[in-house]
Structure formats: C-alpha cells, structure tokens
C-alpha cells in the first residue's frame, strides 16, 4: 500500500485533533470559573499558558520531524497529550489548570510537524497550497469552541474534557499504523542548522509576520469566549458560536492564502494582510458596540487566515535546506504571538479600564510589518536584478555618469581576469590595450551621447597583460527625468573567432 498519498489527510486531521485539545481550557473557561474561583488576571494566565509549550516545542518538533519523520513524532506527541487531558479533567485548583495547561501545549506544538514533513511530497510551486490545506487543521479550535460549551452544559466540563481522550488515542494509533515509515530524513545537528539561519534577517522578518498573523488568530481564539461573556453579557454557548465563526473564517481562508502565495507575489498579498490588520486594530480600539467589535474581529479573521497561508509559502522558498528548524522557529514565534496579547489586554484593562491601548498595539505592529514588507518587496526585486546580471552570459560592466565602475558580473571576471573588488571604483581605462588612439575613444563617446549607444570591435587588455579583441556595446541608462545615471557595457571575447 502506498502510504504517501495518505499523509496530507492524515497529518491535517492530526493537526485538527491537536488544536482541539490545545484550546480546551479557554473554550470551557466560562464553565470552569464557576467551580474554580479565578481573578481576571488568573484567567488570562491560565488561558495563555498552553501557548508557552505549544510555541517553544515547535522548534524541536520541526527539527525532530526532519530527523525521524512525522509518523513517530505525531505518535509520541499524542501519547504525551493523553496525560494533561486526563489531569485537567480532574482539576480543582488554579495550580492544576496551570500545570495541566502547560503540558497541554503539545497540542499546538504538533503544527510544525506537518509544515516540515508535507513539502517533501510535493513540488515547490504547490508548497503554499499544501501548507495552507494542512494549516486548515486550525479548524480544531473551532470544533472545540463550538461543541465544548454545549457538552459542558449537558454532562459537565470535567466529563467534556475526558471525551477528548478518544480522538487523541485514535490518532496516536492511526499515525503509528499508516504514517509513512519511508519519509525522507535530514540528519544535521540542531546547532549546525540554527547557526546556518539565525543571522539571516529574513528568518526574523517571517517570524515577526507570523507572530502577528498566527498570534492574533490564537489570541482571539483563547480570548474571545470569556471576553464576550464578561463584556457583552453573552451566554457561554453564544460566545462559543461566535468564536467558532471567527476560527472557521480564519481557517478556511488559510489554504486560499497559500494558493494566492503560489499564484501571485506573496509580498503583495502580505501588504493587504497587514493593511487590514492595521485597520482592524484601530477599529477595535474605538468600538463600544458589539457590531463594530464584530466587524473588527472578522477583519482580523480574514487577514490572519490569508496571512498564515501566505507566510508559509515563503519559508520553503527562502530556506529549502533548513525547512525543519526554520518552520519550527517561525511557528514558535507565531505561538508566542498568541501568548502575550491576552495578558497585555488584561493588564491594560486593569490599569486603564478599557482595551484601547492593547488593540492599538496590534495596529502598530501590523503597520510596522507593512513597512517591512514594502522594503522586502523592493529588496527582492533588486536581488532578482542582481542575480540576472550575475548569471547573464555576456560580460557586463556598469559605470556611473562619471565613468567609475560600480558593478561587474562573473563573466567580466572570466574574460578580463579582474575580480569584482579589483575593478569596482576604478576607471574602465584599466582595460585599455594601447592599440587605439584618443580620437577612437572620442568618436565612441560622441556616438553614445548622440545616439544613446555605441557598438563595435575594440582591443582590450586582460589583467595578465594579454591583449584580446572584444565586441562591445555601450548604452546609456537614464532616470525618469531623462538624466544619464549609468553606462552599461556588454562585451564578449572575439579572439578565437578572429583567429
């Protein structure tokens, strides 16, 4: 039996189960606090604690998945999750909720398993969509937010938590039995992989982006149920339905975000994402009614879903050889992005009596990310132009308007013998052979100034003193004001052709 074709549905459903148990505490908090007295700050801490391990462990699970494969890592993770689920089902104190919630974070940590494993089975042009499909496993949080409060009203929250043991045990067995034993492995030391990427600014930019998009998704997931009950006096079931709607929208849009990242420039998509998050942060800062608050929250859901899918298109694009560790770091930062907002919002409310400053922080971070995306977009275009220049077959030399060399390519070095650092900053006369008089060069530059270009045969000299014949084209490069800013020289060695 070919097990590879089962990996996408198996791992996606495994993520659904992981996320279902990850948010048990936050989904049931309106019911739990009736039995265990908790202050608002304690509620914020308890609902945020599962995010800690769920974030930090993503780094290790991403690395271990590359080394041992998704099958064994999913299996071990679900075996570990059994214990906190059972422990929380018998909780009767704040300490029990914190201890159980901390280990419950493994449910969120499994995210980095699939984003590391699944791209191995698909070509690069489909990575965005595949990771988007897998990321739709976020729907597990909606399932819990929707069903858990209703079950708790019927059978109590303790028994509701115990029911979650069934899917956890089931998918531990399914991964063990039909997980791919032959998944390609990458066995490089952890520290070696970290050293190879930690100085790359793109890693930290992507981490910041995911910190905001996935962080806002997680934060609203754990924060909405209790907030809607406390501030808008909704019933726990109504709050759960609204939270489930938020999660569903963000989840269903994630594959679309991945698909858009495959089809279009991902940076353009992210500009809309962070522009929308900036708007929603400002709106939520000044939204006294449930209607305006709903509009702001739905905008967050839309932008977070699209952004989450698009960002994980960029990870294998930039880090194909270190995907495991980079997926772990980026997804860990996203998880931490869900840990801090509930605590910040609670603290801000206790100090000021409202949430405006906390939501304005979302707008500020989103706006900063918008600016960084603009910078990365133009940097990417510049990088592409540089790569084109470096790999073009003809020798290339760029001088400024004063005739000083500013850039050369690899072919220039092959023909002339001058390394880039030896040529840049010098005048092109370092190549003059002495075979042409001054009038030759004067006519050449007169033609450039009158026609915008000159081309013809010219004798030049290599670094080793050898004289060679080349076919040279010199062209003007002007700016929008029609001012000459650069001269571009393209040439090829004609010595062998002549001989």
UniProtKB/TrEMBL annotation:
Domain of life where this protein originates: Bacteria
SUPFAM superfamilies: MFS general substrate transporter, PYP-like sensor domain (PAS domain)
Domain PAC per the UniProt entry, residue ranges: 454-499
Domain Major facilitator superfamily (MFS) profile positions: 6-381
Residues annotated as domain PAS: 381-427
Keywords: Membrane, Nitrate assimilation, Transmembrane, Transmembrane helix, Transport
Stated family: Belongs to the major facilitator superfamily. Nitrate/nitrite porter (TC 2.A.1.8) family.
PANTHER family: HIGH-AFFINITY NITRATE TRANSPORTER 2.3
Protein name as it appears in the record: NNP family nitrate/nitrite transporter-like MFS transporter
């Amino acid at each position: 039996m070919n097990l590879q074709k089962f990996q996408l549905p198996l791992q996606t459903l495994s993520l659904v189960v992981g996320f279902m148990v990850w948010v048990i505490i936050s989904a049931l908090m309106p019911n739990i606090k009736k039995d265990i007295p908790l202050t608002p700050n304690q509620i914020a801490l308890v609902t945020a604690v599962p995010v800690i391990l769920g974030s930090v462990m993503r780094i290790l699970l991403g690395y271990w998945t590359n080394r041992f494969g998704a099958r064994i890592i999913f299996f071990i993770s679900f075996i570990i999750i059994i214990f906190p689920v059972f422990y929380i089902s018998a909780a009767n104190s704040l300490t029990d909720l914190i201890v159980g919630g901390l280990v419950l974070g493994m449910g969120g940590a499994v995210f980095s398993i699939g984003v590391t494993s699944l791209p191995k089975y698909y070509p690069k042009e489909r990575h965005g969509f595949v990771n988007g499909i897998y990321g739709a496993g976020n729907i597990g949080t909606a399932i819990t937010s929707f069903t858990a409060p209703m079950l708790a009203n019927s059978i109590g929250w303790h028994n509701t938590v115990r029911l979650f043991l069934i899917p956890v045990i089931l998918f531990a067995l399914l991964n063990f039995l039909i997980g791919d034993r032959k998944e390609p492995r990458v066995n490089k030391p952890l520290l070696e992989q970290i050293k190879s990427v930690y100085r790359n600014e793109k890693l930290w930019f992507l981490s910041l982006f995911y910190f905001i998009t996935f962080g806002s998704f997680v934060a609203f997931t754990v924060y909405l149920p209790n907030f809607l009950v406390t501030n808008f006096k909704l019933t726990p079931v109504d709050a759960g339905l609204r939270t489930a709607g938020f999660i569903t929208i963000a989840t269903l849009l994630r594959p679309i975000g991945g698909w858009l990242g495959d089809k279009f420039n991902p940076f353009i998509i992210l500009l809309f994402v962070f522009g929308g998050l900036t708007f929603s942060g400002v709106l939520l800062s000044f939204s006294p009614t449930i209607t305006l608050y709903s509009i702001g929250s739905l905008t967050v859901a839309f932008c977070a879903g699209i952004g989450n899918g698009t960002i994980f298109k960029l990870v294998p694009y930039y880090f194909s050889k270190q995907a495991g560790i980079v997926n772990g770091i980026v997804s860990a930062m996203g998880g931490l992005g869900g840990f801090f907002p509930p605590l910040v919002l609670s603290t801000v409310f206790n100090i000021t009596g409202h949430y405006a400053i906390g939501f304005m922080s979302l707008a500020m971070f989103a706006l900063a990310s918008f600016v960084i995306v603009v910078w990365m977009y133009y940097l990417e275009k510049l990088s592409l132009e540089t790569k084109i220049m470096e790999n073009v077959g003809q020798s290339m030399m760029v001088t400024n308007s004063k005739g000083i060399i500013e850039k050369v390519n690899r072919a220039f070095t092959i023909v002339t013998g001058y390394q880039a650092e030896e040529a840049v900053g010098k005048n092109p006369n370092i190549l003059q052979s002495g075979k042409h008089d001054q009038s030759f060069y004067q006519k050449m530059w007169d033609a450039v100034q009158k026609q915008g270009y000159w081309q013809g045969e010219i004798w030049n000299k290599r670094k080793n003193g050898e004289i060679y014949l080349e076919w040279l084209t010199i062209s003007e490069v002007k700016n929008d004001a029609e001012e000459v800013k650069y001269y571009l020289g393209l040439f090829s060695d004609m010595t062998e052709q002549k001989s």
